[in-house]
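Bumping with the actual sequence this time:
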Amino acid sequence: MRESTLLFFMAFGLTSTLFAQFTLPQLPYAYNALEQAIDAQTMEIHHSKHHAAYINNLNNAVKGTPTAEMTIEDIVKNISKHSMAIRNNGGGHFNHSLFWSILTSEKNTMPNAGLQKAIEKQFTSVDSLKKLMNVAAATRFGSGWAWLIVTPDNKLAVCSTPNQDNPLMDIAEVKGTPILGIDVWEHAYYLKYQNKRPDYLAAIWSVINWTEVSKRYDAAMPPKKSIWEQWPTLNTFHGVMASTFHPSEEGNLKPIKARSAEMVTKAEALNAQAYPDDYATPAIKDAVARLISGSKELDALVKKKSKDAVLTQKLTALHDVFHEIVGLCKDSH
């Protein structure tokens, strides 16, 4: 760097910005956009002063060290290897960056289908989740955060952490990937609510960005297995169906006449073991029952040496039931 350029930055106190690894994220909304829950003055001070201070302190703590080349996520995940200055300020940066992203001025956002299903499975309803989150936030002594996380076994859980700790840290009592965090440091609400933390907690749900929380949930979950990977016996039945139905479309009934009994066996196998969790619905179980009974009827017709037209009609109907099951699985996936 030219000396004149460096002197320019030094003269205006910009050297910390010049060498900064971490920067203050720009909010996707105005400071006054969340007034129904958080006043503009609190938002401005919280973002431009408190968060900015965490970033400045973090940059000073990592400057000139290999940590300066790490992402904030990697720092947080391995926080036990770092100083308290990095723990406090790195946690503050990570936590607030997440916090801003899960707030919105948009009205009535909703969890996507995957997150909604997970919430209902773990907590029975979104309202029940809110109550648990509010309890975790209200009972966090002093300063800290309440969290909705995805645990290492891919379940949802509610927890809280002190100060600027979070569940992604390797020192956390409850570990997981945070997808929603509520700041219960007093600077997050005191100007509007004073010491009435429960009032702040009741109000903040009106500005939670469930679209963003859903994206974070999807990113935290492992890729979904295909229907065939989750339900190998259905894939096995599919193999018999494909190798018999498609020839029948061209008038060739030899495959189904040779394999009708095998089709019954493969259909019955669908009920011989537990259904995959995603597919254990009444509608799918009813369709499987019809697939089994239809396969038996087709096998009986084959044994009676029924006319090809009759066999074709029955096989086509069975093929339709099979694809009904596949469609229901996709809806539940």
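The tokens above came from a reply further down the thread. The chain has two domains: 31-104+112-220, 227-332.
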